[in-house]
Amino acid sequence: MRRFSQNRQDILDCLAGTDTHPTAEWVYARLKPTHPSLSLATVYRNLTQLKNDGLISSMGVVQGQERFDGNCTSHAHAVCVQCGRMVDVPGFIIPPDMLDSVREATGYKLSGAGLQFTGLCEECQKKES
Amino acid sequence: MRRFSQNRQDILDCLAGTDTHPTAEWVYARLKPTHPSLSLATVYRNLTQLKNDGLISSMGVVQGQERFDGNCTSHAHAVCVQCGRMVDVPGFIIPPDMLDSVREATGYKLSGAGLQFTGLCEECQKKES
DNA sequence: TCCTTGTTGATAATGATTATCATTTACAAG
DNA sequence: CTTGTAAATGATAATCATTATCAACAAGGA
Fold it and tell me: Which pTM value belongs to this model?
């Protein structure tokens, strides 16, 4: 028997409605005004669950905090090493035959792939001067 | 004035002498027998410093622990989502013109790129059955 | 209604990493 | 050699994101 609580739905909607690749804290802060009784633990719990169910994905840990993404299609990202801003990079898709060759080279049973670029975002470049 | 302490050198050598992409704890455990007075804090400090100096690189956080690599040349990795085992995947180099197109698309001043595959390593595949 | 099971909020616990601080070390100048 | 200075160290406390705990609650199904 599956249940999909209102909180879980709202957390999912929150992720779907942003392209900032937010942290758990960010989601919590965003929902708190409209969900006064929401607990941070509930956000963590539901993010973990949504991730396990494949409805959201994790973009890894940036500056100590895990970043989530409602967009589960394979796409590349650029991360600012200064402020942590993370943006999508369109147009980079890992071709299936590349996965095959990696499978062969490593023996791993692959389930995902990620391409990530690091650097300074435009705002942080300005601050450098 | 630069100083390159014996500890720092040994930590660097330790990373250069393995392909396991180890954690700070792993390096500490590896060095402790031959460096009885070594402190875990010293390992963390030197890893951070070596990373800032570009002598080693970080492969990101896997299962809550940062993974380091003495190999600074750009290469892809495969990570086991079960046990965290991380292996090199030879033959994947990000071409410079790809960096240029990402630079243009995002406005980021890029400094690095990483390609990472996730899945189950051979050992963990066996355990599944 | 009763029972089972998922969910929640509050909060304590965990654990990797970082900060602190007094002490020691390396090296250069006198 | 002695002294000054800045880096390095070991021990340990502090930080902080994430997890675990637990009692209370809610949603169905029988």
Answer: 0.94
